[in-house]
Amino acid sequence: MLIRLLLLFTLVPLLELFLLLKLTEWWDSAWYTFLLVIATGVVGAALARWQGIRTWQRFHRDLAEGRLPADALVDGMLIFLAGGLLLTPGILTDLVGFALLLPPVRAILKSRLRKRFQADFTGQSHVYTWRNTPPRQDTIIESRLLDEDEEDESR
Predict the structure, then answer these.
(1) pTM > 0.85: yes or no
(2) Which residues touch 76 (CB under 8 Å, ≥6 apart)?
(3) What is the mean pLDDT of the chain?
(4) In the predicted model, what is the mean pLDDT of residues 61-76?
(5) d(CA 94, CA 76)
(6) Does residue 134 surpass a pLDDT of 70?
(7) Distance of CA 77 to the CA centre of its chain
């Protein structure tokens, strides 16, 4: 996991920088690239805010109707992630961020996340345990209640 994070935080910024430099070279102007980064950040933040508000309303509607707002929570998490990616300067992060704002893409991710969570948890009535963990062994501790007279004798 640490290796993946290290690669993510080193390779992605280097690739983003390379793409921004190539885009600047292709346009013969750094200003167009700079304006593109600013525009995608502003437009992406506005879209993420709009969809976030709609998801918040759906969350409250589900609660008012007595339903568990699990889908709204996952949508909210993915929209929040999309907003963060869109505010990060770069081409790849913007593409992933805009993709996360599309409801069909979020629906695919939600189904994959649901399958992943179901594979990681095994349900036993209302108690959930992690997969691949040994069952808990109960320990019985015997005790007895002493009267005041017995307490004095035991000392």
Answers:
(1) no
(2) 52, 55, 56, 59
(3) 83
(4) 89
(5) 18
(6) no
(7) 5
Q: How far is it, in rounded angstroms, from Cα 54 to Cα 58?
A: 6
CA distance 88 to 97: 9
Q: What is the mean pLDDT of residues 34-58?
A: 91
Please report how many Cα atoms fall inside a 13 Å half-sphere around the Cα of residue 100, on the Cβ side.
23
pLDDT in the model for residue 125: 44
Q: How far apart are the first and last CA of the chain?
A: 56
DSSP the chain: -HHHHHHHHHHHHHHHHHHHHHHHHHHT-HHHHHHHHHHHHHHHHHHHHHHHHHHHHHHHHHHHTT---HHHHHHHHHHHHHHHHHHS-SHHHHHHHHHHTSHHHHHHHHHHHHHHHHHHEEEETTEEEETT-PPPPP------PPPHHHHHHH-
What mean pLDDT do residues 87-94 have?
A: 88
User: How far apart are the C-alpha atoms of 145 and 38, rounded to whole Å?
Assistant: 73
